[in-house]
Amino acid sequence: MKIYFANALFSQAEINYNAQLAQQIRQLSPDIDLYLPQENGDINDKQAYADSTMIAQADTEQLVHSDLMVAILDGNTIDNGVATEIGVAYAKQIPVIGLYTDTRQQGADNQEKLQALSQIAENQFHYLNLYTTGLIKLNGTIVNNEPDLLAAVKKYLN
Fold it and tell me: Is the pTM higher than 0.70?
């Protein structure tokens, strides 16, 4: 099974997280062929040069030939590249598993947090673009922790 892993890759924290989670996914089965864009030195060696068309062609080629996409949705907003890749996956009918671990989603039954929604600039929850998350839900799922992500990947292996 070919899996495309989508996340930002511009800080050491993102690079480390991607590598750690990609390793966990790869350990699920020897049948997994996971593409992690940061491992593609032809386009993501930041000491070298790759223009926008080189990046778009290389990553899109991998994405459209994938059976599944894992998309990390965390951050101030969904990374622009990840959002674009989600759109491509949807158009190509490639299932997407979104991972959204933002802790601000906790307390959904807390009445104070819910009442704060009616006050200007007091949203206690994080917002994700509904169009982008809708594309995922139309052809996949969103989970909020790594064990559930790994379980969802296993379901697609069967």
Answer: yes
